[in-house]
Design brief:
Blueprint lengths: L4 E14 L2 E14 L3 E5 L6 H8 L7 E6 L2 E2 L5 H11 E4 L11 H11 L4 H14 L15 H13 L5 E5 L7 H18 L2 E5 L3 H4 L4 E6 L2 E5 L6
Parallel strand pairs: 3-8, 3-9, 6-7, 7-8
Antiparallel strand pairs: 1-2, 1-4, 4-5, 9-10
Helix pairs in contact: 3-4, 3-5, 4-5, 5-6
The protein binds adenosine-5'-triphosphate and magnesium ion.
Amino acid sequence: MAAREMLRLTNVTKSFETGSERIDVLTGIDLSVREGEIVAIIGPSGVGKSTLLHIMGALEVPTAGEVIVDGVDVFGMSDDERASFRNRTVGFVFQFHHLMRELTARENVMMPCMIAGVSRSDAAVRAEELLRAVRLEDRADHKPGELSGGEEQRAAVARALATRPLMVLADEPSGNLDSVTGEELHDLIWGLRDSIGQTFVIVTHNRGLYGRADRVIALKDGHARETSGDSPP
Ligand SMILES: Nc1ncnc2c1ncn2[C@@H]1O[C@H](COP(=O)(O)OP(=O)(O)OP(=O)(O)O)[C@@H](O)[C@H]1O
Ligand SMILES: [Mg+2]
């Protein structure tokens, strides 16, 4: 049986208007991601990778086209419904992790659950489990400023997983890590896929990451094209 389709984009376009200028960033994107896949998105700076990731996660509204997450038309909902759907179904890992500086690693991981209405004690149990999974249990009470770069990124991954999202969208998760720490983060991502079937879409310039992905999608001139990680365009 074919794996469940987690994400489908049909003819997604996105243009930005600034003053008199219009930039057509995405001009017709069709792609789908199935449960448990790790899909890498590559392409040169400014091509629209982050824009595409934000549209996939319903953070940004496309100019036209359809985004279906687990069978649900995300942009057919009201803004409030969409915000709640996003909080339940999508986990984000941003390039510079965006952890809250004044909160500990534990509190950062608890936050998405508490926003989703989970009790403090249940959120704490979930955070403990996730911090163990990313091997940060000994750093749970450190604030981001007291963590290394790799530890901060692992905390960001734990936070992205807090609400058991259908998919995790990650923007250059290893972009600012050294190669050994980056490799550890990649092992963590693959470990989560193998253990709990977590689906990932990852924007990356990192050859070590896209070279391992199940599929690699290259963005060029507003279009998405499947490519081989061995010979990116
Ligand atoms: N809010 C916005 N208003 C106007 N233009 C924007 C906006 N956001 C992005 N752009 C433009 O859209 C294009 C794509 O931006 P995007 O951030 O998606 O690129 P990217 O592929 O993620 O690049 P990088 O690899 O440098 O992160 C760029 O030319 C950018 O200047
Ligand atoms: Mg970007």
